[in-house]
Amino acid sequence: MSIFERRQLVLKDWVRRLDLDMAAQQNGWVLRKEVMATDEEPYQKQWATEDEQIAYVYVEDDRIDVRYIEVRAVAIDEAERELREIVNTYTQDELVALAAMAQTPEQWRDALHKAAVGAPKQYDANYFRIFLSGLQHPDRNVKIAAMEAAPYVHWREFELPLMKMEKSDPVAGREAGIMLQAMREHEWNQQA
Question: Using one digit for the tens of pLDDT, what is the confidence trace for 17-71?
């Protein structure tokens, strides 16, 4: 039995649900499931290639206002490359650049949320520096956006900064404690 790997690719801002429907039709993807959004779950649409070797799950995550595709495949690098040829997604370098160029709190929130979804599942120092910068930002909403990244990447490295923030940050300490508790209740991803 083959093991499918998963990778999340953040869609460029102008890519819409209809664009994915057209890509699916043009590339022969078979619709497997459509899940309407609820208070607990985001909208999702799932396709598979005819040979069942690749699955695509489109997600509209309204909690953080990010749309992405989760690619599931045994040959994940090849599947990602093929999808990038069909659909406009952010590269890893572009996601890091969004954070580097962020100036306003709104730009920071957008960059942090997209980085949270598109970051590698295993610890990555470049992305972690982005999240740390967000946690140390003077704007409360930016700090919260950085905390919201923790459950997406689920890296144990978040534990110490959140503990410090919980104890010392009068602006976002309470939220840090809540996030820290939630992360402790679930298994942390370990550094590779």
Answer: 999 999 999 999 999 999 999 998 999 999 999 999 999 999 999 989 999 999 9
For residue 92, what are the CA distances in angstroms to 44, 55, 107, 173? 23, 21, 17, 30
What 3-state class would DSSP assign to 182? helix
Whose tokens are 């999240």? That residue is 131
Q: Are 89 and 12 in contact (CB under 8 A)?
A: yes
Domain range annotation of the chain: 5-86, 92-185
Residues 106, 43: Cα–Cα separation, whole Å: 24
Claim: this prediction has a pTM higher than 0.85: yes
* Core vs surface per residue 158-175: b (16+ CB within 10 A) or e: beebbeebbeebeebbeb
Q: What is the pLDDT at residue 187?
A: 66
